[in-house]
Design a protein that fits this description.
This protein is mostly helical. The chain has two domains: about 90 residues, no CATH class; about 60 residues. It has nine helices and no strands. It is rod-shaped and about 95 Å long. The relative contact order is 0.08.
Length: about 170
Amino acid sequence: MEESNFVNEWVAAGEARGEARGLVQEARSILLRLGKKRFGPAPAGVEAAIKAVTERDWLEQIADHVLNATSWDDLLDAGREDLWPEHLREWNVEESKIVNGWIATGETRGLVQEARSMVLRLGKKRFGPAPAGVEAALQAVTDRDRLEQIAERVLDATSWDDLLATT
């Protein structure tokens, strides 16, 4: 009789575990389908990241953001970006398209920031202190190529105004 109770408890525990797994699998599946419908095909890194999540509550939180999110990246933030490193520990996120996208965005910002800094530094050496509005005008330029063109013109320009008129 004791053995029968043990087996019944073991079976019940297995069924509960299977049900929990099924709920998580279905939450993942629905989340991926909704995301694909809203944002298009999921990049490989996104699908792998979602499949790495084992907490149903977290999947539901992410799903709550489907209607307001503007992209896969936005969806995955879901206010819980602090948890991604924990869930992605087993994944090679250095080769993730999403992570590489974040890195590329940061690199682009850094390149633009450095180009602006270089224009200011070279301009100050050539023309003296920048008049009011020059730094704001340079901050408004977000195109790296344009900033590099401005930097190249430092040698030929006759003033800050002439430099900023570079097309």
